[in-house]
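step 3/5: co-fold with adenosine-5'-diphosphate
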Amino acid sequence: MHARDFAAESLLIEEEPYYQPVGSEIALFEAAYASQIPVLLKGPTGCGKTRFVEYMAWRLKRPLITVSCHDDLTASDLVGRYLITSNETVWLDGPLARAVRCGGICYLDEIVEARKDTTVVIHPLADDRRCLPIEKRGEVLKAPKEFVLVISYNPGYQSVLKELKQSTRQRFVAIEFGYPEAELEKTILMREAGIDARTAEKLIKLAAMTRSLKGNGLDEGASTRLLVHAGKLIARGVEPRAACRGAIAQALSDEHDMLVAVDELISTLF
Ligand code: ADP
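step 4/5: write tokens
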């Protein structure tokens, strides 16, 4: 029985990811990292959290292991399990164990989606113990100082079931993400989608209108991600209204009345 070989080098991000800083998030992350404190990224979907982690992994030269959490994700999925092959039983590290072993960044995206038993395994890693017990192997991995646990969480869902417990959240340094302010979002859109300033400005106006509908018919406003999508379609020659309908309106809602309303907003701008 042996732990499978695993090439941490393959998880290094070689090229600098484009990340537009929006506040003091880089300094905050670096200080937390140096202090071996785990990091919680708070904010709505599509506002740059994943891109930020990729950028920090590149900047700190650490391998990045990302797990998108879902409601079937168990502690074993994170820690690892025995696999029975034709003639032997092998242990396969899960992503969390791999990240601990190689001193990487483990990014658990949307942690509240995961099953409750996953918190049991992240807690000892997220406090001074900094260890990962692997019960099935009777092994306790001590995290090297380079390891950092990063989780993300969208407080906007406002469902008791989707809340992060105090005992979990109080172990982390929290960095809040929101939609970037207009000038920065414009820079991001021009760079990411390859569109001109005027088109970017219109998309941002449209986004602001949908964002004000949050809680009034929309669960979320248009994220930067959706604007980038619409911008990319426009840059490829798709008619702007059709691009906004497909990439923004339809992505936000299925409700007929809401789609009509967003469509009107689109028509006033494009
Ligand atoms: P989240 O992880 O918060 O859901 P992402 O990091 O995937 O969101 O961001 C979605 C997209 O928005 C990215 O792929 C990128 O194109 C763009 N984006 C958002 N914020 C930034 C930023 N600050 N710098 C560069 N790109 C950004």
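step 5/5: annotate
Strands lie at 39-42, 64-68, 80-84, 89-93, 105-109, 131-134, 139-142, 148-153, 173-176.
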